[in-house]
Design goal:
This protein has 753 residues and is mainly alpha-helical. The chain contains 28 helices and 4 strands. The chain has a two-stranded antiparallel sheet.
């Protein structure tokens, strides 16, 4: 019977605490008895001069008695350790549950209903006179709360089941014989069960596979790495780990696999990846030896089989790649693998694809997630790994390459033919491959185009991580950009700003848009020119060259930068990220100016100076959108509207990186973020009707008016909050609006036809 919500909330854990105390006393008492028996009767027995029956029967009886007392101590200690850890875990989970229900649910006006089978339902109760309609924000909050509570319940159920199983194994169901399974902690019992399940391989039932996934999910993130390390060691070694994952991934993606099985195998891919990342971090107290990395590189070019008489065997890197796609890996483990795979690809782009199983559905393979390929091309997989591993990715693109032999060992004095992986991957002649099981993919032009974009898309993810310091797609606020990370961004601007045509219809553009959004303060600083007030990366308002982090926006040539922005902005998602980020930075700059008005003789010129770059960027974006939608007709305007709607995370992220007086995390910051989000959506969502797209000039003029209105609103609000009266607030806002209109036109002219 599943542990229920009511069970966890209402259980009196003080009783369990008392039991833990009782077992601690029993352990201490039995330890003394065991020591006494060993040092007393056993010692005397060993030294006695026995004769006759005593030499056999009595001596043997004493030896067995001493062992039994020792076994009783061992059993009691196992029970105590498991109960103590289980109690601590359940107390924490019960506290989390009560906070979720009594605080979070109450604040949201949500009720929690126990629906049995270890799950709950969260809902908004209908109140007389209250509409049943809820905002998307409210619905998202309800779903997040429901998911969180169900995760807590699932974790508690895993603890409960593991404790019960461990207690039974410790006792052995034998009242006359002590000394069975021995546990030093609850972790030992969890690892034992996980390995026990994994050794069943594809014979695991769906319920058993789900149990394994839960064990990995709730324990693989331990900071000391103990569970993760012991789990992989329990599988037997690097080859056995690959064999297990290969067997399970094929079992879950085969043609006769059920949807349930596929879902569980997709989950296994995720949790085994996270577990491997934790187990291979050398900084953890418990971690796999360096030999694992060396062995995995050796196995990378060897075929891995898991069944007798198996014909079609994948290469080790094809299997490993499925795991690497999930987890934040340490550079000391990941980068030698990434370098080795890249060098193998450069030497022969089709080395790994030569044995792919054609004719199967694309879901079939070692990447059950189905994201960016089937998993036959490990280059895509390792780039995704770098996309989730910021530190490793930054080092990969900035540090000198190391040459490797085919077996994964370092090649002394090896010549690679390129100076950096950045140069290699951004070379327009770099050969990407199609990671698909389809035999006739070239016959489907759209499919071929999509598949060919998997590699560049994964490269974009890796570059996002390298430049922002966060896994790609993260909602968090970026840490301060390092000089090395900023150098990558500068190189991207130079590379594609000098050759913007290389980004035509490139899958890289959405990632480049995200990177640009993250560096928007540097971008706007580059547009300000000498003597302008700029905002360095995470820095305070200052003159050029005076930054908290030396990212040198002066090094960004405005001309090349505008070409870069113009090319990137043709992607709807990139457009949304850049526009939202630009509006956020400009709003933050305006707020900061009003908060420090006493520094300036006249505030209006200072505000104009601060918002001019934003207007120029808005003009560039407007021209890019117009060229894409009206002139070239290669994207629908509705796609740009969607790009704007889904870029709302950038407001909070940019304000979180802000330089003004807005208290991050405070109520004021929340209001500013919401205002920016609403302003961007209302002002940059265009009429996508065919009639609205007929007149190019009107389309552009509408966008100019939207940009101007957005800054007018931001300036007016900032002035009012700073204490300005209505007349002066409007005057400041109008001046800001005029500056945006002028700088907007300049931006258009720079990239206009």
């Amino acid at each position: 019977m599943a542990l229920t919500f009511t069970d966890l909330v209402e259980v009196d854990l003080d009783k369990l605490s008392a039991a833990v105390g009782d077992w601690k006393k029993a352990v201490d008492g039995l330890r003394k008895s065991a020591d006494s028996a060993r040092k007393g009767m056993q010692t005397k027995s060993d030294s006695a001069q026995w004769a006759g029956v005593n030499a056999t029967v009595t001596r043997e009886f004493i030896t067995k008695t001493v062992k039994e007392v020792s076994d009783l101590h061992t059993e009691a200690n196992s029970i105590y350790q498991v109960l103590e850890d289980g109690h601590a875990e359940l107390v924490s989970l019960q506290k989390q549950m009560k906070t979720a229900v009594e605080v979070d649910a109450a604040n949201l006006g949500i009720r929690v209903e126990d629906i049995g089978d270890g799950r709950v339902r969260c809902f908004f109760p209908h109140v007389r006179g209250d509409s049943d309609e809820r905002t998307q924000k409210q619905l998202d909050a309800r779903q997040e709360l429901e998911d969180r509570i169900n995760r807590i319940l699932a974790h508690a159920a895993e603890i409960d089941a593991t404790v019960a199983r461990a207690l039974a194994k410790s006792h052995g169901n034998d009242p006359y014989n002590a000394g069975h399974s021995k546990y030093g902690s609850l972790n030992d019992a969890e690892v034992e069960r996980a390995v026990e399940l994994a050794r069943k391989g594809h014979k695991m039932s769906d319920a058993e596979l789900r149990e394994l996934n839960q064990l990995l999910r709730f324990n693989s993130g331990e900071k000391d790495g103990e569970f993760a390390t012991e789990f992989y060691q329990g599988l037997g070694g690097p080859e056995e780990a690959l064999q297990f994952y290969a067997e399970m991934s094929i079992d879950g993606t085969s043609g006769d696999a059920t949807k349930t099985r596929l879902n569980e195998v997709q989950d296994l891919q995720r949790v085994m990846g996270y577990t491997l990342a934790n187990a291979t971090d050398p900084d953890h107290k418990h971690h796999l030896s360096d030999n694992w990395g060396a062995d995995l590189r050796r196995l990378g070019t060897q075929q891995i089989g898991w069944e007798k008489g198996q014909w079609n065997k994948p290469y080790g890197y094809q299997v490993l790649g499925g795991l690497l796609r999930y987890g934040n890996y340490d550079s000391r483990f990941l980068n030698p693998i990434a370098e080795h795979i890249t060098q193998l690809h450069k030497k022969d782009p089709y080395f790994f694809l030569s044995n792919k199983p054609t004719g199967n559905p694309d879901i079939y393979g070692f990447n059950p997630s189905g994201d960016l390929g089937t998993g036959n091309e490990p280059l895509n997989s390792v780039l995704e790994a770098l996309g989730n591993s910021p530190e490793a990715s930054e080092k990969f693109f900035t540090q000198p390459p190391t040459a490797y032999n085919e077996d994964g060992t370092v090649k002394k004095d090896g010549k690679l033919g390129f100076d950096s992986y950045f140069d290699l991957f951004t070379d327009k002649d770099f050969e990407w491959t199609m990671d698909t099981n389809s035999a006739n993919v070239l016959a489907d032009e759209d499919k071929a185009k999509a598949v060919m974009g998997y590699g560049p898309d994964a490269l974009g993810h890796a570059l996002e991580a390298a430049t922002t310091g966060l896994p790609y797609g993260s909602e968090a606020v970026s840490p301060p950009h390092s000089k090395e990370a900023a150098d990558i961004f500068h190189k991207l601007v130079e590379r594609y700003g000098a050759n913007p045509e290389d980004l035509d219809d490139s899958p890289l553009r959405d990632s480049l848009g995200n990177i640009t959004a993250d560096y928007m303060r540097d971008v706007q600083g580059a547009f300000m020119g000498d003597g302008g007030t700029v905002v360095g990366t995470h820095g305070a308002g200052a003159h050029l060259g005076d930054f908290d982090v030396k990212t040198d926006p002066e090094g960004l040539s405005p001309g090349v930068l505008k070409n870069f922005l113009g090319a990137v902005g043709k992607d709807p998602d990139a457009y949304g990220a850049i526009i939202t980020s630009q509006e956020s930075v400009t709003t933050d700059l305006v707020n900061d100016a009003f908060h420090h008005a006493d520094r300036y003789k006249e505030l209006a010129p200072e505000i104009a100076n601060r918002i001019a770059p934003g207007g120029e960027i808005a003009g560039i974006m407007a021209e890019s959108r117009t060229q894409t939608v009206v002139d070239e007709k290669i994207a629908e305007d509705a796609e740009f509207n969607e790009g704007v709607a889904t870029a709302d995370k950038w407001a909070g992220r940019i304000i979180g990186m802000g330089i003004g007086k807005i208290p991050v995390g405070g109520e004021v910051a929340g209001w500013v973020v919401e205002d920016i989000q609403e302003s961007v959506v209302s002002n940059f969502t265009r009429d996508s009707s065919p009639e609205a797209l007929q007149n190019r000039d009107k389309f552009l003029e509408d966008q100019r008016g939207s940009s101007a209105q957005s800054i007018y609103d931001a300036t007016y609000t900032a002035a009012k909050e700073a204490g300005y009266d209505e007349t002066n607030a409007k005057s400041q806002a109008l001046a800001a609006k005029r500056e945006i209109e002028d700088s907007y036109g300049l931006g258009r002219q720079r990239i206009g036809k």
